[in-house]
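ugh ok fine here u go
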Amino acid sequence: MTADPQTTAPGNALRPVSRLSRRRPLALGLSLALAGLALPTGPAAATPSATPDQPEPGTGGSTQQPVVVVMDYSSSMLEADADASGTTRIDAAKDATKQLISGTPDDARLGLVVYGNNTPQDCRDISTLHEVGPVDAEALNSQIDALEAVGETPIGASLLHAAEDLKDEEGEKSIILVSDGEPNCNEPPACEAAQDLAGQGIDLTVHTIGFRISGNSAAQETLRCIAEATGGTFTEADDAGSLTEQLRIQTTRAFQGYEAEGDEVTGGTNVAGAVELLPGQYVTELTSGERPIGLSSRTWPEGSVQFFSAPHQQGYFTNVSATLVLPRAEQKFEDGALIAVQPVGTCETGRGYEMSYPGSEDAHPVGTWRSAEATLDERDQERCLTPEGQQVFAVYREGDFQPDTALPVEITVAYEKQEDGLPESADHTAAERTPGTPSDESPTAAQGGPSFNAATELESGQGITDTLVPGETKYYSIPAGYGQAVDLTGHFPQGPDHARSVMVNLYNPLRERQSVITSTGATGFHGATSMGALNIQDGETFHGGLQHTLLPENRAGNGSARRIAAAGVPGPQYISVTRQYEAEAGDTELAFELTAEVTGQAQDGGIEFITTAEQYRQAFGEDDPAEPAQQDETDPAGESEPSSEDSAEPAPQDEADPAAAADASESGTDPLPWILGGLAGLLILGGIVMLLVRNSRRQG
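structure:
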């Protein structure tokens, strides 16, 4: 099976398609009829298809999730206690909503529902002010200015109303509910309505904001119950300024839910059925089973491992990454989850990179593998590759984190050219680097992205401020070239109780985790490993960054030198900031400041990297890859390594077996169209022959 792009428009999903299932159309013409006589009775070769350039790993945009904001306009919002100047709650709510609208991303899909704004003592007073979709800020702001606060607080019914507005939206979606008190309309009860929505399995999360509810235990319990039932967050805002900030933060978080990106693929269940991947980014889903598995076993829990392959190209290393996409609300560090990329073949030992997330103090969500050799002699090709020249690798999950839930996994594939004459490795340490001079500008508020694909780009030396809730990860990027490194300065000034620690990781454009170091020369904080994150405790200021300068010669390292080799890829350097999950912390936010600075002088030259299918075809030609061997459905584990005994030809079908014939038809190998095509060709050719004979007789 070969994952070969089939596109009708840019961004069209790429799915694993057997080349046997794609046929050339038949034409009724003499030349094609004659050619049809020479066609084999087996399947046709695939027709090459054009492919739009795939984004380099980590450069794609984030898909904005649809969000509906539900705003309280009940009569209690007339209280003039939103700030020291006597601003009414309704005016504070209007200002917060309009500021939210002005900052809404262009590609966002936002809806607005209000209750209590029309009729006193009417529990049905719920209106959709703006349907889910792009926002006309001027028109919507005019509607908001005209709103009044006169009615009741039907929170439960408002949730159902907002959910109805989202019913046609696919995928994950969110509601942001703002209320200044508990509901006084209880049909249906608010928490029961939230629980009912959660039980429908519609990927809906409700985040709640309590406005001026300090001391109101009934309102606090209701809003907290709604959030917990749907996997959302509950926060409080005590004044107009904090309401504006919380509404912006919660809505932006809802927009930026981590949507896995890439062309959809499903790997094989064994080595023989490995699906080929060309350079690019892909998405699949994996469960983990109920126990650690390890690839040495010949059996695995169903759905926990998939096999892929990449064509070996002499003189090029192969790089693969697998990123496990976890739901933010469930990133509990006491639960074990692991994502791994493991090569299959006797010349590849060990498991490559395989890192767990969560489960350890320096955990992170990416497993990576880089082939040990770029050039293989004849003996190594027999040991390391399939007869078709494929490198086989497995992507799998282990651990007890939601073992029966299929979680998305992003897979990236890239090639890098071997550069001759480079040293074995270059340990250009950054231990003596001192923090640079911070920018004179005040830190600016920023919202880190939810993934590599949507990382927020930082300017060198410019400080930013951001927040984290328990279990959340924010992603940033900063461009750096050869001869440069990235230094970080951070501070966590006012952490709430139970803040625990925060991990800061740095990755290269291939998603390989890079070694980090403090400005004093110590690697990591508080016992973190040499490949680990900067582990920062609440209230600390830290200085750290890449341990090694970005240099081409660092890519010569492998094995024990992987942490050095990772510092050899120029381009966007990714920074992830993760707050450990702590149940006692609830949904309280942890504010932090971060400054990233690029040091050193950029150098020209470097290594050739191939990250898209189009680049691959330009470098190695347009020929279709060879067919892999047919998958042996009787052995779910398959062979533990490629074997020269594997055949590239599919097993012959028993024509007397109806089941086999049905299987052939479903897999795209049904010979009937080719038989009919051959008969049509014979009929046409026969007609031509008859015409020639008649003409010959007439002339005679």
